[in-house]
Design a protein that fits this description.
globular; mainly alpha; two-stranded antiparallel sheet
Length: 319
């Protein structure tokens, strides 16, 4: 057995799909970190958004004329509603921080706990299911074949044939790279995150910057949740985020809070997940060792990032 027996096109395609919610979470976390607002509630955002996506799709599909006319349209509308819902969560975070100076770490812990329990409660109370809920009327987001690219050997297989949320994650990564590197607003975000008082002294609105960062991180988290419940599967299950929000925060740190770095780190984590799944099928390595690999890699990466940050801090002090 050689490496090409393990790392196949199917593994790489799976890696891209598995990486999508992590990339979206990482982009949102990186933006918030750049703006100086630590959003650790992304995992809870994703869980609640996954639930909102499948419920809104179900309601549109079964109780409106639009949904009954076209099931795919119902799914797209469900995704749109979920993105808006995520943005609303970010808005609430920004409002509480701005108006009441709420500790976002404490709020994030409460959000993550609430998301886990309230989704299960509603699932039991409304749909009379305890672990997993789905409905046959819900249609998965369709795959999109990219013109021209899909006909290119190997590259077409690798880059074409995913749903719209996968491509949106790539588009948002590019847009955020351009925003942070090429625009005045990007410089404002960096300035607020590095030195709030200095930013205020030159007339930058810290409030607007933080509102922007938290709302957009909510939208990205909403798309991540929608991908899990109606993009990748057509069901909701308890704790559906499965720590992807935390992996997104880790990926943001690994990418030094730069959109490009966060995107690459998210891809890396997705590849680690896909590789672990592949190794379970083609090797005799105990499954519990393989399953823990992505988390071990996360710890190693965060240790490296922390060491580098500490070293840079010591160098600045010495200078």
């Amino acid at each position: 057995m050689n490496i090409f027996d393990i790392i196949t096109i199917n593994v790489l395609q799976s890696a891209i799909r598995l990486a999508t919610p992590i990339i979206l979470a990482a982009l949102g976390a990186a933006l918030c970190n750049k703006a100086g607002v630590l959003n650790l509630g992304i995992d809870g955002f994703i869980t609640m958004s996954a639930f909102v996506a499948i419920v809104s799709t179900y309601l549109i599909r079964n109780f409106t004329a639009i949904g009954m006319m076209h099931p795919v349209l119902a799914t797209f509308l469900g995704v749109l509603i979920t993105a808006l819902f995520g943005g609303l969560l970010g808005l609430i975070y920004a409002f509480l921080k701005d108006r009441f100076n709420v500790d976002l770490v404490v709020l994030s812990i409460a959000t993550n706990m609430l998301a886990l329990e309230i989704t299960v409660y509603i699932m039991r109370a409304v749909f009379h299911q305890s672990g997993t809920w789905s409905d046959s009327s819900i249609v998965q987001l369709p795959s999109i074949e990219l013109p021209l690219i899909s006909s290119i050997p190997v590259l077409g297989d690798l880059l074409s044939g995913y749903n719209i949320i996968v491509y949106l994650s790539w588009i948002f990564a590019v847009l955020l790279i351009v925003l942070m590197k090429k625009t005045k607003w990007g410089r404002y975000i960096t300035a607020v995150g590095e030195n709030r008082d200095a930013a205020v002294s030159v007339g930058i609105s810290v409030t607007k910057v933080r509102y922007f960062a938290l709302i957009l991180s909510g939208v990205l988290s909403g798309l991540a949740g929608a991908f899990l419940s109606v993009g990748h599967l057509t069901l909701f299950t308890r704790d559906m985020s499965a720590g992807r929000g935390w992996l997104g925060n880790a990926a943001a740190l690994f990418g030094f809070n730069n959109p490009g770095g966060a995107f690459a780190a998210g891809l890396f984590f997705g590849f680690a997940d896909a590789l672990a799944l592949r190794l379970q099928n083609v090797t005799k390595i105990p499954s519990y060792i393989i399953q823990v690999m992505p988390y071990v890699l996360t710890i190693v990466i965060l240790s490296i990032v922390s060491y580098k940050a500490l070293r840079d801090r010591r160098k600045r002090k010495a200078a």
